Amino acid sequence: MENLSKQQLTLLALLVSFVTSIATGIVTVSLMERAPQGVTQTINRVVERTVERVVPAENQKAAIVTKETVVVRADDLAVAAIEKNGASLVRIKRVEGAGDKRVETLLGLGLVVSKEGHIAADAGVAIRRFDEFGSPIPRSFLAMLANGMVVELAFVGLDEDVGLVLFLLKPAPEQKIDIVPTALGDSDALKLAQTVISLGGGETNAVGTGIIANLPRAETPDRRVLSIYTDREAASTLSGTALLNLSGEVVGLNAGIGQSERSRYLPANALKASVEKIKAAAL
Questions:
Q1: Is residue 14 over pLDDT 90?
Q2: Is 186 in contact with 268 (CB distance < 8 Å)?
Q3: Which domains occur in the chain, in start order?
Q4: CA dihedral in degrees (258, 260, 264, 265; nearest 10)?
Q5: Residue 176 CA neighbour count, 13 Å, CB half
Q6: Distance (Å, whole) CA 183 – CA 195
Q7: Any residues with CB less than 8 A from the CB of 118 and at least 6 apart, and which?
Q8: Which of these ranges, 47-51, 196-200, 217-221, has the smallest mean pLDDT?
Q9: Model pTM?
Q10: pLDDT, greater one: 105 or 46
Q11: Are 175 and 153 in contact (CB under 8 A)?
């Protein structure tokens, strides 16, 4: 040992560390096989990230590699995803009548999809109502933001093929609002059994967790996802419940054709295409 150079000592230390890691892994696997089921379930809910850093040793050609393990629990990821999207979820109300006859009705949820304040929602919230004489009843729409502020909505357009409606926030001059658009993920990259979170609720937010149970895809080269089915119903009876992945991206919306199935979601990629289609038609 005394005759070894500093470089040789460093390489020897790395070799010992490598052998020790392999031995630790073998022992861990052996213990896991003997552990009670409850213990293994708890361990399996932990996600570990290993970060490697290469640090040049002073006055040496060899480099020292240090590893830092960051433990991230699935519960923490779910909480972060919900907090990230809470401000992007709005509650849409229809207003009919005026004065003593003014009636506000909560219709569904909407999702902020642009920094300009565009709100995507199920087309059902924009269905026309008619009076006893067959005339359309005048109505307007309001958005109740996450902070409790109520803002007027302007109708932008409707995509009947998909079953999506688009509104635009129209704050009054004295209203100062912070528009927080959601981050839409790539729904075509989803996998069966992937963990997802539904975010909805009437007066307050309600959540549910589950997995992706079915992913019907188009019989085309791009194999795009046509619908997302989960193993659990949406956390809200209202349309517009958002489906999140553990990265905090919205991958689906309980809206569009077939919205009556509360475990079915419109894929985020179809949502993005529909929003652009409506905006282009409104120009």
A1: no
A2: yes
A3: 6-73 (no CATH), 80-85+183-282 (2.40.10.120), 88-170 (2.40.10.10)
A4: 70
A5: 0
A6: 18
A7: 112, 156, 166, 167, 168, 169, 275, 279
A8: 47-51
A9: 0.75
A10: 105
A11: no
